[in-house]
Fold this protein.
Amino acid sequence: MAKKYLLDTSAVIKYLNNSFSAEGLLMIDEIVDHECLLSFITEIELQCWNPVNANDLKLYIEFVNHSFIYYADEKIIKEKSELEKHII
Protein backbone atom coordinates (compact mmCIF):
# COMPACT_ATOMS: atom_id res chain seq x y z
CA MET A 1 0.00 0.00 0.00
CA ALA A 2 1.39 3.41 -1.00
CA LYS A 3 2.05 6.02 1.63
CA LYS A 4 -0.08 9.16 1.51
CA TYR A 5 0.90 12.49 2.97
CA LEU A 6 -1.34 15.36 3.99
CA LEU A 7 0.79 18.49 3.66
CA ASP A 8 0.29 21.25 6.20
CA THR A 9 0.43 24.98 5.55
CA SER A 10 3.98 25.47 6.81
CA ALA A 11 5.30 22.69 4.60
CA VAL A 12 3.54 24.11 1.53
CA ILE A 13 4.81 27.64 2.11
CA LYS A 14 8.37 26.41 2.74
CA TYR A 15 8.12 24.29 -0.39
CA LEU A 16 6.84 27.17 -2.52
CA ASN A 17 9.51 29.50 -1.10
CA ASN A 18 12.28 26.91 -1.58
CA SER A 19 13.05 27.21 2.14
CA PHE A 20 13.67 23.50 2.68
CA SER A 21 17.08 21.90 2.36
CA ALA A 22 17.85 20.25 -0.98
CA GLU A 23 16.87 16.88 0.53
CA GLY A 24 13.61 18.30 1.88
CA LEU A 25 12.70 19.80 -1.48
CA LEU A 26 13.36 16.47 -3.19
CA MET A 27 11.19 14.66 -0.65
CA ILE A 28 8.27 17.09 -1.13
CA ASP A 29 8.77 16.92 -4.92
CA GLU A 30 8.29 13.15 -4.76
CA ILE A 31 5.15 13.52 -2.64
CA VAL A 32 3.68 16.21 -4.89
CA ASP A 33 4.53 14.27 -8.06
CA HIS A 34 2.47 11.28 -6.89
CA GLU A 35 -0.45 12.80 -5.03
CA CYS A 36 -0.67 16.10 -3.22
CA LEU A 37 -3.25 16.10 -0.43
CA LEU A 38 -4.29 19.21 1.50
CA SER A 39 -6.96 19.81 4.09
CA PHE A 40 -9.46 22.59 3.66
CA ILE A 41 -7.80 24.23 6.69
CA THR A 42 -4.53 24.44 4.75
CA GLU A 43 -6.41 25.91 1.80
CA ILE A 44 -7.95 28.56 4.08
CA GLU A 45 -4.59 29.43 5.58
CA LEU A 46 -3.00 29.67 2.13
CA GLN A 47 -5.79 31.99 0.99
CA CYS A 48 -4.68 34.31 3.81
CA TRP A 49 -1.00 33.96 2.94
CA ASN A 50 0.57 37.30 2.09
CA PRO A 51 3.87 36.51 0.36
CA VAL A 52 6.56 39.16 0.03
CA ASN A 53 6.58 38.57 -3.73
CA ALA A 54 3.07 38.94 -5.18
CA ASN A 55 4.01 36.56 -8.02
CA ASP A 56 4.17 33.79 -5.42
CA LEU A 57 0.36 33.84 -5.35
CA LYS A 58 0.45 32.32 -8.86
CA LEU A 59 2.47 29.45 -7.42
CA TYR A 60 -0.13 29.00 -4.68
CA ILE A 61 -3.00 28.89 -7.17
CA GLU A 62 -1.19 26.38 -9.37
CA PHE A 63 -0.21 24.26 -6.37
CA VAL A 64 -3.76 24.13 -4.97
CA ASN A 65 -5.26 23.46 -8.42
CA HIS A 66 -3.06 20.37 -8.71
CA SER A 67 -3.86 19.13 -5.21
CA PHE A 68 -6.67 17.06 -3.79
CA ILE A 69 -8.43 19.05 -1.09
CA TYR A 70 -10.27 17.32 1.72
CA TYR A 71 -13.23 19.68 2.03
CA ALA A 72 -15.78 20.56 4.58
CA ASP A 73 -18.39 23.02 3.40
CA GLU A 74 -17.41 25.73 0.86
CA LYS A 75 -19.35 28.33 2.88
CA ILE A 76 -17.30 27.49 5.98
CA ILE A 77 -14.07 27.91 4.05
CA LYS A 78 -15.07 31.33 2.72
CA GLU A 79 -16.31 32.58 6.08
CA LYS A 80 -13.19 31.36 7.88
CA SER A 81 -10.97 32.98 5.24
CA GLU A 82 -12.72 36.32 5.64
CA LEU A 83 -12.46 36.13 9.42
CA GLU A 84 -8.74 35.32 9.24
CA LYS A 85 -8.08 38.22 6.87
CA HIS A 86 -9.62 40.63 9.37
CA ILE A 87 -7.75 39.15 12.33
CA ILE A 88 -4.35 39.20 10.67
